[in-house]
Amino acid sequence: MTNRFDGKVVLITGAGSGLGQASALQVAKEGAKLSLVDLNSSSLEETKAKVLEAIPSAEVLLITANVTDEKAVESFVNQTVETFEKIDAFFNNAGIEGKQSLTEEYGTEEFQKVVDVNLNGVFFGLKHVLKVMHKQGFGSIVNAASVGGIRGIGSQSGYAASKHGVVGLTRNSGIEYGQYGISIKAIAPGAIMTPMVEGSLKQIDPENWEEAGKQFVETNPMKRFGKPEEVGYLVAFLLSDQANFINATVIPIDGGQSYKY
Q1: Which of 106, 159, 177, 259 is an active site residue?
Q2: Which residues cross the membrane (predicted)?
Q3: Which one of 100, 152, 158, 201 counts the least CB within 10 Å of its CB?
């Protein structure tokens, strides 16, 4: 096992499940000290338990916070620095899918809710972590975009709009901060079998969501869902020093889904 994160501090939002949890496990196995943030405190405890089961000596800070509250974001960034003295890497991951409907029927409040979490939350995280990294003169950030941020996806206008915004923030901030030793990139996952994707399938067909999933993966060149740990491997690489020259870009991890259209 490599130790790319020995002595390094990794901050992860949305760490209570799915991609955040898988990424936390992976970087912890490679030596990282973790600052884990989620709105759900019990989910955070579950992630910590899994980390400590795999790496009993791991250092793990848990912070319950809402990424749509800028003061809360500033606070968890400061708590991380106060505890570990720095932030080497940041997986800016917290997000929600929102409801599915045609754009003309998409609720304005629902649209705003999705944008608040997926775009404003990412912006707040970038803003306050970049203050730390700019002062340090180093750092790596991975923002969670989506296949829905590089092409359209039907019935999810709020989600697609917010993730396109994440792509724009990533490219813009990468251009701004590369000169300061900070690399910023985004990942664009396709259908990864997480609680979020399961919830999306249940919106399509509450009674037979697993069958809906089987039909959905038939449109993917690899004919399957991705696994959270597969995204965790990619996130760990992108947060590591090995990926420092990858900047201001978006990397799909979707089995080829985004290139079919």
Answers
A1: 159
A2: none
A3: 152
